[in-house]
Write a structure and sequence with these properties.
With 59 residues, this protein is mostly helical. It has one domain (6-58). It contains 2 helices and no strands. The chain starts with 10 loop residues before the first helix and ends with a helix.
C-alpha cells in the first residue's frame, strides 16, 4: 500500500512523522552509555596486580 506508513499514519503526515523518527534514531545520543574508561584488558591487568600483591604478601 503506497502512502501507508503503519504506526506513523498515512499520506504526507505519516511520511513526515516517519522521517522525523528515522532522523532522530540516526542522530544517536539516546540510550547510549558514555564510555566507562575501562575495558576488559584493564580489568584483567587490575586482577593480575591484585593477585600478585596477595601472593607477595603471603610469601
Amino acid at each position: 500500500m503506497p502512502g501507508d506508513y503503519g504506526y506513523f499514519g498515512k499520506g504526507l503526515s505519516g511520511y513526515v512523522h516517519y522521517m522525523q523518527a528515522v532522523e532522530d534514531s540516526n542522530k544517536g545520543g539516546g540510550g547510549k552509555r558514555p564510555p566507562s574508561g575501562g575495558g576488559c584488558l584493564t580489568s584483567i591487568i587490575l586482577l593480575f596486580v591484585i593477585v600478585l600483591i596477595i601472593v607477595v604478601l603471603l610469601f
